[in-house]
Amino acid sequence: MNGPQVRVRTPKDLRRDRRPHPHSCWDQLVVAPLWPLHGVNLGTLLRTCDAVGACLAVPRLPWVPEALERGNTLRHPACVHWTGNRVRWLERQRDRGSTVVGVELAEESVRLGDLPAARRRTVVVLGHEQTGIPPEALDLLDVTVEIPMVGTGASLNVAVAGSLVLYRLAGLL
């Protein structure tokens, strides 16, 4: 028995169907790993931002620019916002009218599958890989989202968790 023919899309097909040039700043969907532990996660999130049309917001830590430079395999500049004071930056995002979504295990968390696509400017906050989002920032979240897991771990890598939530909020999952 022969099944249906599968047509693999060529790189030329993919380029034709996508935007012609990289963006300068979409700013409607922003992922903010504000307490990064591993530089490699920033590079992974940068790729996901490009894939879903999001921007990356990062703190001005001494090692972050080099991590972004090493991790940017896009061959063009990426949209990166620098936060300065992380809690004040989050306060400004809320004052600006953004929805602030935290990826955190909390009693009131929405399961990832139940999270609706973003309808207005949304900031996705990612915490420290070991300690999560600090208490002073938790008060600034409009909603928390939990990624269900059936394995033995308590959480996913920051880049993986951020990528899943970005795809969901972008309406691509």
Automatic annotation (TrEMBL):
Residues 40-167 form the tRNA/rRNA methyltransferase SpoU type domain. Keywords: Methyltransferase, Transferase. One of its GO terms (molecular function) is RNA methyltransferase activity. It comes from the Bacteria. Residues 1-21 are annotated as: Disordered. The keyword Methyltransferase applies. The keyword Transferase applies. GO terms for biological process: methylation; RNA processing. This is tRNA/rRNA methyltransferase (SpoU). It comes from Cellulomonas fimi (strain ATCC 484 / DSM 20113 / JCM 1341 / CCUG 24087 / LMG 16345 / NBRC 15513 / NCIMB 8980 / NCTC 7547 / NRS-133).
